[in-house]
Amino acid sequence: MIITLTLNPAVDQTIFVDHLEVGQVNRFNESQLDPAGKGINVSRVAHRLGWPTIAFGFLAGEIGAIARKALDDEAVQHHFVPVPGQTRINVTVVDEQNRVSTSFYGQGPAVDRDHLSRLDELLRFWLESGRVLVLAGSMPPGVSEDAYASYIRLAGSHGIKTILDADGEPFRLGVAAKPYLIKPNVAEAERLLGRSLPNTLAVVNGARELASQGITVVVVSMGGEGAICVEGNKVWRALPPEVERRSTVGSGDSLVAGLAVALARGNDIVEGLRLGTAAGAATAMTQGTALGTSQEITSLLPQVRIEEIT
User: Catalytic: 34?
Assistant: First the structure.
């Protein structure tokens, strides 16, 4: 079982316009709604890959009900603690003429101690049947920045491998708790290390430095340029297939899903890197905030190249 935790879920709305006119009335051609949040996306892709998964977190109000129904429609198992207020809506406006996207991200509803206690009870129960715990995304108001670190230690006490995909102080504190795998993108790795990573060699050295802090596997995603993976003394670069990239939203989450499935299966990290890279490319081919399908992932898998860096 792959368990995902999304403390600050969302519903993503993508709006497509011919040309965005700032300060004017804009009429859009198409709009789509998708349940969102990093961990939720990981569960959705893991489910498409045929691996049992369950998503946890907090949902609120009518917007939360939209996310819950969407997961039900996809048959993705979930247990969300209800909280007052409204789950956030993240809006992305796609200017199709200029091929530019503008995003607006909400803060999310506040969470109190009772809600956190209920979530802890659920997680402690389900961790007994888990193999991998994915901790991903931002923190809502009311949640301590060391929450991920606490969950990493809890999972470790159950012998469960943890994957951390976050940013800022929650990420730094989580890394200090030594999760099994971390998956920053380049910008997140730069903030964590406090320096620029301007090229592939710098990314490799940065990933090695992070791995030296007691992290078993470090994967740094580089968008269309693939990903760098460090495990012990070994370094690999994953090169994705050449596809028409329509949107990068959710590609990193799809990469994490492939890594999580491989860990749950007991495969080596190279197989996880291959599966995750195919999943990320499949999602990049989709419009807006949609995710790649199992058929697309399977078809792209043989086209992924993994190179060991010596």
Answer: no
Among 178, 212, 175, 214, smallest CA distance to 191 is for 175
**Which residues, other chains included, contact 265 with Cβ-Cβ below 8 Å and sequence gap of 6+?**
51
Q: For the residues 211-233, what does the mean pLDDT come to?
A: 94
Q: Which long-range contacts (CB under 8 A, 24 or more apart) does 272-275 make?
A: 273/219, 273/227, 273/229, 273/236, 273/238, 273/306, 274/238, 274/301, 274/304, 274/306, 275/49, 275/301
**Residue 202: CA count within 13 A, CB half-sphere:** 12
**CA–CA distance, 287 with 290 (Å, rounded to integer):** 6
Measured distance CA(250)–CA(72) in Å, rounded: 19
End-to-end CA distance of the chain: 35
State the average pLDDT for the chain: 93
**Residue indicated by tokens 């430095």:** 209
Question: Cα–Cα distance between 170 and 38 in angstroms, integer?
Answer: 15
Tokens representing 194 are 């406090």
Whether 154 has a pLDDT exceeding 80, the answer reads yes
Enumerate the domain spans of the chain. 2-309
Look at the domain 2-309 and name its fold: UDP-N-acetylmuramoyl-L-alanine:D-glutamate ligase (3.40.1190)
Q: Which of 12, 146, 165, 253 is catalytic?
A: 253
pLDDT band at 101 (very low <50, low <70, confident <90, very high): confident
